[in-house]
Amino acid sequence: MKRDIDIEIFYPYPPEKVWRALTDSEALAAWLMPNDFKPVVGHKFNFRTKPRAGFDGIVYCEVLELDEPKRLAYSWRGGKLNTTVIFTLTPVSEGTQLRLEHSGFEGLQALMISFIMDKGWRKKILPISLPKVLAQMDANPNVPLAAAGCQ
To answer: d(Cα 9, Cα 15) in Å, to the nearest integer?
Structure first.
């Protein structure tokens, strides 16, 4: 049993700005989770969130691919998950088309988790949290994102 998440969404910002939100540790923390991300292939980093049953609250990641400002891929391991996240940015008129592929959900437990994560990516993170950070980057470029209350 296997399932992947595949979502496309439009942002009215140039690819370079969306790329910064995906690859700047402070921006990434403001819309996703606190982290020690660095945009370097092979860099191992963590996302940190609230622990839950069977999950210590740490997502263990490694940058697998980096093609600025077009494509970013990293592993995503935590609890019973061993998955991959890929962001693909395509310039379109008036902005950027972002495609998120979160793949590798195998087994019954991972399948159930994939439905929860799909809802998070689709209903909150990509349409609400990330655009809030992108807008804040425009409105107050000198204010630290965490201080702006974007998380």
So the answer is: 13
Token pair of 38, please?
């660095």
* pLDDT, mean of residues 65-86: 96
Q: What is the pLDDT of residues 4-56, one digit of tens each?
A: 999 999 999 999 999 999 999 999 999 999 999 999 999 999 999 999 887 89
Backbone angles phi, psi at 143, to 5 degrees: -90, 130
Residue 33 lies inside a defined structural domain of this protein:
yes
Residue 54, SS3? coil
User: What is the count of structural domains for the chain?
Assistant: 1
Model pTM above 0.90: yes
**Residue 68 belongs to domain spanning:** 2-140
Would 151 be classed as within a structural domain?
no
To the nearest 10 degrees (0 to 180), the angle between helices 15-23 and 130-139 is: 110
Q: What is the CATH number of the domain that holds 104?
A: 3.30.530.20
Q: Is 48 helix (H, G, I), strand (E, B) or coil?
A: strand
